[in-house]
Design a protein that fits this description.
The protein is α/β, with parallel strands linked by helices and 243 residues long. The protein has one domain (13-145, 183-236): Undecaprenyl pyrophosphate synthetase (3-Layer(aba) Sandwich), CATH 3.40.1180.10. Helix content is 44%, strand content 15%. The protein contains nine helices and six strands; from the N terminus they run βααβαααβαβααββα. The protein has helices at residues 22-28, 33-54, 67-72, 75-94, 96-100, 117-130, 146-159, 169-174, 224-236; strands at residues 14-18, 59-66, 103-108, 136-144, 186-189, 211-214. Strands 3-4-2-1-5-6 form a six-stranded parallel beta sheet, sandwiched between helices. α1 (22-28) packs across α2 (33-54), α2 (33-54) runs parallel beside α4 and α4 runs parallel beside α6 (117-130).
């Protein structure tokens, strides 16, 4: 099914979703945090299908977990997340729609320093089998921190002896962990709960002209209709790009 004419031409190259609110959704329903994470994965599958197959957005990025999410939360919760991520990545590696539609899956972040071997294996598998694809891109940010990304990029520039006069916007971008991604057009953040905000310097170099959409809806309740409303809102806006 194709999108309706009202949002068929979005002129949206790179969409980011920050799927916040899994744990708060679980508390609201008197459930354990991991039940919220499981519901969040189910919601991801639904929304990702809409974005990649129906709306055909070239680049879609999900912030799966921050670095703090993986190093500061309880061991029990983080282990559950690791198993959930591994299962999801293995499923994506075999997904017929992923291969039919030539969707490249990437997992960016500081996860190699943090996650267990079984998750590393699952990530390496899905990135390997989809690496030849160029039609669309599905990126997960895992163990990601935008401040740390920028600090490491600056250190690399210094280590390479690049002079001040040579440093341009593209110089910094090329040294970022997310250098392979284009600028972000639109960020949808769920579960803002009257507190719309960015976190951990999220993709600061890619979001200098981004539009933001905040909703109080927790991620497990973010339906296809909610997505449609968010995309319609993007189409209504006038992007000035600093002008």
């Amino acid at each position: 099914m194709k999108p309706s004419p009202s949002i068929s031409s979005l002129f949206l190259t790179h969409l980011v979703i920050i799927p916040d609110g899994n744990r708060r959704w679980a508390r609201l329903h008197n459930l354990t945090p991991w039940r919220g994470h499981r519901k969040g994965i189910e919601r991801f599958e639904e929304i990702a299908n809409e974005l990649l197959l129906k709306y055909e957005i070239p680049y879609t990025t999900f912030w799966a977990a921050s670095r703090d999410n993986l190093v500061k939360r309880s061991t029990q919760e983080v282990r559950f997340l690791y198993r959930l991520f591994a299962t999801n990545f293995r499923r994506l590696a075999k997904d017929k729609q992923v291969h039919k539609n030539k969707i490249r899956v990437r997992v960016l972040g500081f996860w190699p320093e943090i996650v267990p071997k079984f998750l590393v294996n699952a990530i390496e598998e899905v990135t390997r089998v989809t690496s030849p694809y160029k039609k669309r891109s599905l990126t997960f940010l895992l163990g990601y921190d935008g401040i740390e990304e920028m600090v490491r990029a600056i250190k690399k520039i210094i280590q390479e002896g690049i002079s001040q006069d040579e440093i341009k916007y593209e110089t910094v971008k090329q040294h970022l962990l997310t250098s392979s991604l284009p600028p972000v057009d639109y960020i949808i953040r769920t579960g803002t709960d009257n507190d719309p905000h960015n976190s951990a310097g999220f993709m600061m170099w890619h979001t200098v002209y981004s539009q933001f959409y905040f909703t109080q809806t927790f991620w497990p309740d973010f339906t296809k209709e909610e997505l449609r409303k968010a995309l319609e809102e993007f189409k209504r806006r006038e992007r000035r790009l600093g002008g």
